[in-house]
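Structure in, sequence out. Go:
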């Protein structure tokens, strides 16, 4: 006989299941409705099943610029990802030692996390307008999104370097390695898994960002803004098909980063194993 479960176990299980339904129910519902037949609408019951609305996405749309906005979101997301990784690592390395003004600077960096996103978007847009600069997704939009991704990346790297054993670096310097060699051959491989996490954070937060891009993208929308615009004038399941594809794309990005991490880890373990065999 197995151990009898307590009442609390079933209560927590029910809460967890309810949480999963609340979290993923809307996404699953949109995915199902995106397979409506040609005469289907935006609600249940479904009028047949087909790939009609996915095919409509690849035809010329009367409203919006779906694929143009998708390209802009990809470019912006990759740019934000690279900048976030580089600056987060730099900040993490810099904060390993105390310097003048480090504490106020730290609080200034993370302050943007508690400021309402729409106010950040408004502020960045106003600054660009007052300076006579063009409000554009690749400049003001980039700056607004970095106020969201950089604090997350920096906090992650702070946690990583707080647990980092400096003995590895000291051993490298004792063997004659210079600062660049120590960073490239010792520090970087050790923090690589965390860098992948920061990169994934940077890209996904940028790709899905709406509020901070709303007033800073200029005349060209990113994909979240384009989807929001479509909700006001598109009355067919084509918007559900777009939502399903963008969700699948986000999942593919996550799978790509996880696969890259696993392969990098195996390669690193293999190198360590080969080096160990060479010493035997």
């Amino acid at each position: 006989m197995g151990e009898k479960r307590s009442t609390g176990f079933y209560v927590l299980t029910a809460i967890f299941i309810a949480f999963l339904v609340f979290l993923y129910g809307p996404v699953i519902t949109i995915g199902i409705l995106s397979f409506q037949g040609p005469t289907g609408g935006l609600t249940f019951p479904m009028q047949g099943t087909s790939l009609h609305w996915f095919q409509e996405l690849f035809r010329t749309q009367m409203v919006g610029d779906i694929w143009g906005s998708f390209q802009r979101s990809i470019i912006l997301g990759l740019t934000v990802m690279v900048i976030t990784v580089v600056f987060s690592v730099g900040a993490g390395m810099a904060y390993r030692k105390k310097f003048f003004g480090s504490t106020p600077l730290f609080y200034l960096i993370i302050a943007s996390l508690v400021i309402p996103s729409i106010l950040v978007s408004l502020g960045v847009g106003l600054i660009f307008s007052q300076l006579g600069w063009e409000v554009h997704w690749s400049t003001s939009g980039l700056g607004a999104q970095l106020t969201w991704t950089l604090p997350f990346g920096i906090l992650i790297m702070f946690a990583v370097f707080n647990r980092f054993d400096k003995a590895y670096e000291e051993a490298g310097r004792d063997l004659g390695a210079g600062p660049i060699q120590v960073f490239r051959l010792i520090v970087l491989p050790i923090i690589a898994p965390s860098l992948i996490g920061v990169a994934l954070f940077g890209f996904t937060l940028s790709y899905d960002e709406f509020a901070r891009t709303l007033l800073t993208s200029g005349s060209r929308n990113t994909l979240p803004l384009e989807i929001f615009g479509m909700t006001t004038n598109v009355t067919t399941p084509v918007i559900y098909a777009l939502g399903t594809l963008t969700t699948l794309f986000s999942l593919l990005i996550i799978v790509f980063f996880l696969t890259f991490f696993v392969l990098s880890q195996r390669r690193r373990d293999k190198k360590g194993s080969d080096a160990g065999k060479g010493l035997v």
